[in-house]
Design brief:
It is a single chain. The protein has about 290 residues and is mostly helical. It starts with a helix and ends with a helix.
Length: about 290
């Protein structure tokens, strides 16, 4: 990642990327700026103000969350990470990581059923249930249903080995990343699904940039997710230490093909698509960096 991060003066793209904050001013705060605790507290407000669940159920959920935070904070203050992990149900991620998911399953039995069907390997039934929930007016329920659909789509794509199926996973996960981050504590999973799909499509440069986005733009990454991303990024960085040089080479190749009046789908249009995708990802990464600084 170091070589990727160090190329601020990227030839032809450097000036464009540096001007991005001026051309497209970034908001003062976005869902990407919020940690797990902030998102969970917004979710709790949603439960009482919008979802209007039964007061006793609401109080029980809030009490569970508050006690969990208090004990986790105490464990952290005392340096007892083992107690914190045990209390959080064996999760190695941030406090309350699965509180939102568990609360939704309790409030919406149909969502719990869809997740159970997935775990049981009944993928067709799980997909149909999740599709119905995706249309919910509750943005939290709809977002979790979409993430479930993306997970199911990845499993089906791996089973079929179909490139178009992986493109579907990418499209669905990109939608989640653009619209649903406020409503998911595991929003990082959608970003990871994109990287995994790029790997299956044999697009290592795009996979490299996607992992850089994951490590730059997502707060409170579970340690195991962060470790996987760093390991894969290091391996890819050795292959593409200068990613923009690779894209520049693609551009030169397309220019030569066009001069020779070779304009067909393969290889010219394929290279053009790869170039546009890579540039889009570079811009997405730069925007994430700008948010952090």
């Amino acid at each position: 990642m170091s070589s990727l991060a160090g190329q601020v003066g990227w030839k032809f793209l450097g000036p464009l990327l540096l001007l991005l904050p001026i051309i497209f001013p970034l908001p003062a705060q976005s869902p990407a700026d919020l940690g797990s605790r902030e998102k969970t507290e917004i979710f709790i407000q949603h439960l009482v103000k919008v979802a209007k669940i039964d007061p006793s159920r609401y109080q029980a959920l809030v009490l569970e969350y508050e006690i969990g935070n208090a004990l986790a904070d105490l464990s952290t203050a005392e340096g007892d990470e083992g107690s914190k992990e045990k209390f959080c149900g064996g999760l190695s991620g941030p406090v309350g990581e699965d509180f939102m998911d568990r609360a939704l399953k309790e409030i919406h039995p149909e969502y719990a059923r869809a997740a159970q069907l997935k775990d049981e390997g009944k993928l067709d039934e799980a997909r149909e249930s999740a599709k119905a929930l995706e249309k919910s007016v509750d943005p939290y329920l709809a977002a979790h249903a979409r993430l479930l659909l993306a997970e199911l789509a990845l499993g089906e794509a791996r089973k079929a080995g179909d490139g178009q199926a992986f493109e579907k996973v990418i499209s669905l996960s990109e939608t989640i990343g653009q619209n649903d981050r406020l409503y998911l504590l595991k929003d990082h999973r959608a970003c990871e699904l994109i990287a995994l799909s790029f790997a299956q499509l044999k697009k290592p440069l795009l996979e490299l940039i996607q992992y850089a986005i994951l490590l730059t733009d997502y707060n409170d990454l579970p340690p195991e997710v962060e470790a996987r991303a760093k390991e894969r990024l290091a391996a890819l960085d050795g292959e593409f230490g200068h990613p923009l040089t690779t894209v520049s080479g693609w551009m030169s190749k397309v220019e030569k093909l066009l001069r020779d009046e070779i304009t067909g789908k393969d290889p010219t249009q394929k290279h053009e698509t790869d170039i546009v995708s890579a540039l889009d990802k570079f811009i997405e990464l730069q925007e994430a960096r700008e948010r952090k600084t």
